[in-house]
Amino acid sequence: MKEHDTAPKAQVQSTQPGDEFKMDPLPDSEAPAASKKKLESKVAIVTGGDSGIGRAVAVAFAREGASLCISYLNEEEDAVETERLIREAGGECMLVPGDISDDKHCEAIVSKTMDRFGKIDILVNNAAMHFPQESLADISNEQLEQTFRTNIFSYFYLTRATLPYLKEGAAIINTSSVTAYRGSGHLIDYASSKGAIVAFTRSLAANLAKKGIRVNGVAPGPIWTPLIPASFTREEVGEFGKDVPMGRPGQPNEIAPSYVFLASSDSSYMTGQIVHPNGGEIING
Known about the structure:
CATH class: Alpha Beta
CATH architecture: 3-Layer(aba) Sandwich
Helix content: 25-40%
């Protein structure tokens, strides 16, 4: 992809809509040369990559030519299956189990990735947990801390550890949630942590823009992942996702293309933005 000319020379035209051929520099209207592999030779870390959205993103990245470090808590069987799918897609993969709410473990993830691949081009902060409660009074200090340590503290920890190795052109992608925008009466602490991720994304994007590192986010709606049957009642699971305009939950592989877009040069003029694959919910903010 050729360098973008971003500083127009002082000039004026006397009539509208104007003539493009007179402009200096000329606008860049040519699409980048097509590439079968949008992430060729890139190295990505994906947290929560053992299943759900994280797995779908990792496999999609592998199909686009990336090598993957998959971070997960302790879901060994799921992680091994993710590794198999990545290798089947033609990608290299390493698995790093452990608790990302621990800053030292986040540093270890980065260290192991550098030891294995020698660089990091893409960081996907994705892992999360939630514990439904009917009342704010039911959210214990322990639950509150666990939710925030996993859902947002880890984003700080892992990004901080990764930054020294990110070069111009690198991409950071943070998974937020539709609940950050519309709230959730029974996931108050979770929705609050997801709102913090939106602010983190926008603030970090402003901080890193001059270094050529883009920071964006994805705010999925109801997606069919293991977190759903692990969190809700049988009845709630049966109704999951039916309240959005499209009338169903999304599948992880319907969300993964948003991450490929944000990780690749296709989104070269985007930073500090949130993509909303959510089944049709109208989002303000």
